[in-house]
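Can't paste images in this forum, so I'm doing it all in text. The chain is below; anyone willing to post the predicted structure tokens underneath?
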Amino acid sequence: MNVLTHKKIYEMKQARPILFSMRYLGFLWFALLPLLAAGQQNVVINMAPIDGLPITPGNIFNYLVQSSGPGKVQVTGTIHYRNSNLSLSYSFPYTLRQGLNQFIADEIHPQWQFSTSALQELFFMYKMLPEGTFEYCVIIKPGGGIKETTTNVFDECLYHKSSDIFLINLVYPEDNAKLDVFNPMLSWVANYAFVSELTYRIRVAEIKQGQNSVNAVMRNQPMYDERNLVTNSVVYPVYAKPLDTNIWYAWTVDAFYKGILLGGAETWRFMIPDSIPPEIKASRSYIDIKRETGATRLFAIGNLKLKYVLDDAKADVLSLELLNADGQKCNLTPGTLKAGYGDNRYTIDLSGSGTQLKHLAHYTLVITTKTRHTYKLPFQYINPEYTQ
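Text version of the structure:
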């Protein structure tokens, strides 16, 4: 072996430790890469402990924060409702410790902001949030001492739907009710602790073909829609669109606290069958034919009760003529009535076999006196067999 060969062997032996050191450092670098990358994600927010729960002052801070190292941070929480302008937020400084962190409300002293004072009262005094879908986000911003050089802002959000459907319940008409009046009493009850401070909105809507009760109330033009009611019942008013027979109507009630929707009742339905007579609005049992002007809607349930006061003669004879909606004459017995001086009362039987009037059809009774005075009484006939 010549001198040159010995020299190369010597140089290779000297270079071997250097190559080993470089290989070791390279391996160590690749091994540390995941740790270095993980070191930048130094905060993880876990909101699972409150996911699906109604948010209250007692649990709004019950999420968990995992930190890879100690340091000062600013914590901000926000709640924004999706379909309204309602919102609230809080913020507080905090010193995270390495590992798992959980906030205690009495120790953090957050600064609060609310979109309305009513929302603030609702949350702190009554420990609840209004009905609706909202997004709750927690943001943690490092600052003032976090050892990592990262400037990342860490956040986590959850969606929640608040619904208080079981705190307000309809009472009457019950679901699927069949009524015998056109202006029913609508009533409900509310189970809130602060029920005396609530107002209500009631809606009645026609259920069209292919719809259920909920869709009808939400999509259709209401027959009756009134807000700011302070009582738990209301009579279907005469100024609302009149209800008709053989039509299903849906109705529901919403509760409000100082203008904020708290929740709504279930939606029920009712109808007025055509076998049920309309409500007779006249309180008198006999119709005074001299005073009747046709302005009052008259109903005849099997018969008509008439009153005729004769004060300008000793005797009179009333001739009766019954006309249908087309002006055609109908059979009527008797055709005449005798009257004496003073108060005369008659009951005209319209359900006899000779009359044969149609249920819910409109007729006019024409009364002519011996002195040629004529009185017209338009009315709607109700077959008494359908009122049983």
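Residues 3-40 form the longest helix (38 residues). Residues 18-39, 145-149, 277-284 have pLDDT under 50 and may be disordered.
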